[in-house]
Fold this protein.
Amino acid sequence: MSEPLLDVRDLRTEFSTDDGIVRAVDGVSFKVEPGQVLGIVGESGSGKSVTCLTVMGLNDPKFAVSSGEVLFRGEDLLKVSKSRLREVRGNEIAMIFQDPMTSLNPVHKIGRQLAEAVVLHEDVSRKQAYARALELLKAVGIPRAERRIDDYPHQFSGGMRQRVMIAMALINNPDLIIADEPTTALDVTTQAQILALLKRLQEDFGSAVIMITHDLGVVAEVADDVIVMYAARIVERGAVRSIFNEPRHPYTWGLMGSLPRLDVNVERLYQIPGQPPSLLNPPVGCRFHPRCAFAMPVCREKDPRLEATSGDPAHEEACHLDGETKSREAAALVATLTAGAVV
Ligand code: ADP
Ligand code: MG
């Protein structure tokens, strides 16, 4: 069997705060194969960003402590030196954030920033670096790139800035791109364009992608596999088709039930009430039980473990409900959603 590109094992990250210890990531394991797109989905505050910041070694060591393993091509990034980590981040893993303005330097022209990044990684002349920058701007669909290369970041729209960030991420031809809510700040049309671009580039360049989003719709567009996170843990995982065809965790039902619908008349059966818990003091037992319409006494006491109950060994969920109930509820929800979409 080939080695996964990224193999994250029992990852935990906690922050010391004035109010106590925040366990932002609490025993998360997953793998990413070369060229694969993994979607990580969950409401705000579920630990998606901290998971990826921990993988990249970007938490502030003054406040954050992490444990577990982050095996990137077999090398544990939690244990390597800072300089090695910088090397990996510069050459093999790239990140795209929600707000490109925070990653672009406002006082330098776009072309210069891209060219400088090219020079950092390739032994090329200034002129060649600019040529490469131009080529990248064209590859990410910046219209009139020859002229826009001399513009400053603030002269670009949000969508165009995100394209520039994607160009920046592609410079070293990374094996893994981590995109944290890359389209969340954009309007729906631009969002669709950027997702299509990412998907196309992922196919052309063959990079693996971790796509973090609070939006299951985004996952449906781009991901091969999905992890659903709730309150610092994975509550469900599987191939995207199997998650959408047969979601087996009540939290995933909630996320699916609240997707924007074509038919507004269909009742949103599975809207999730309330808010995600504070990670200072999360609920005992299943962390989702206070918001779960299906909660049973055992859910208040015992922490459910991830297990495969659908017959598909790659599809796992952490829920005490019996397999039959999960199958029945999943079928009912999917039938309702499908009916709504057809009307
Ligand atoms: P998501 O990306 O899913 O919205 P995050 O990973 O950003 O969630 O955050 C997970 C939890 O960790 C949240 O409760 C958040 O408040 C907490 N958290 C994130 N960063 C810090 C930090 N630097 N110090 C303390 N708590 C943090
Ligand atoms: Mg986040």
Summary: Residues 48-49, 180-181 surround magnesium ion (ligand 2) (CB under 6 Å).
